Amino acid sequence: MPSSSDDFRELLARVQQHDESAARVLVAQLEPELRRIVNSYPTLTEDGDDLMQDILFKVFHKLSSYRGDAPFIHWASRLARFACIDRLRRKKSRPEQRMSDLSEEQRTLLHNIANDTAQPSADVASGLLDRLLATLRPVDAWLLREVELAQRSLTDVAKEAGWNLGLASVRLFRARHRLKRAFDQLEPPTP
């Protein structure tokens, strides 16, 4: 941020007057902190650039509502957090899977699993797993993919997500439980 509050007020005034160079300076100063906030939500990092654009748009769109009673970075950070939470809410609405939604091969796979018979093809099993993971919260699906499928250590995943190891262990336990519950809710077809 500019060195003094007067310099910063002047920068904001220039931005409100549609000064492009002032807007670039403001973006350069806000971007590291806003990027840190976006990256603190691991399920949003895949569309982080798009989200950053939305956040910066909101900052510029609502700039006239900034009263100056708190540091500007705090005000912008709050907008960023609300944008991230809104994006998570939209991602959270995941459809539940029904037996009728599955392909014939996936229904056969469920039947085989229930009866401990033939091994399924990797493509069919992968498709069923993707459907089941889609029913979970994005953070649970991400955690299971990283630890179980990518076989990364829980310590590395916890560090990437910004969690302590105890929290990561609890989240992994709960994510596994939710995946099992989603699987159990798909009743195997009767022969």
Give the second-level CATH assignment, the architecture of the largest domain. Answer: Orthogonal Bundle
Shape: elongated
The helical percent reads 55-70%
What's the total helix number?
Answer: 9
Report the radius of gyration as a whole number of Å: 23 Å
CATH fold group of the largest domain: Rna Polymerase Sigma Factor, Chain: A
Report the biggest beta sheet as strand number plus sense, adding barrel if it closes: none
Strand content: under 5%
Terminal Cα span: 68 Å
- Number of discrete domains: 2
- Strand element count: 0
- What structural class results from the helix and strand content? mainly alpha
Overall average pLDDT? 79
Identify the CATH class of the largest domain: Mainly Alpha
Per CATH, the superfamily of the largest domain is RNA polymerase sigma factor, region 2, helix turn helix motif
Write the H/E string, N to C. Answer: HHHHHHHHH
Low-confidence stretches: none
Outline of the structure:
The chain is mostly helical and 191 residues long. The protein has helices at 5-16, 20-39, 48-61, 72-92, 104-115, 122-134, 138-149, 154-161, 165-185.
Could you explain how this protein is built, in words?
The protein is mostly helical and 191 residues long. It folds into 2 domains: 5-92, RNA polymerase sigma factor, region 2, helix turn helix motif (Rna Polymerase Sigma Factor, Chain: A, Orthogonal Bundle); 99-185, Arc Repressor Mutant, subunit A (Orthogonal Bundle), CATH 1.10.10. The protein has helices at residues 5-16, 20-39, 48-61, 72-92, 104-115, 122-134, 138-149, 154-161, 165-185. The chain is elongated. The N and C termini lie far apart (68 Å). The relative contact order is 0.09.
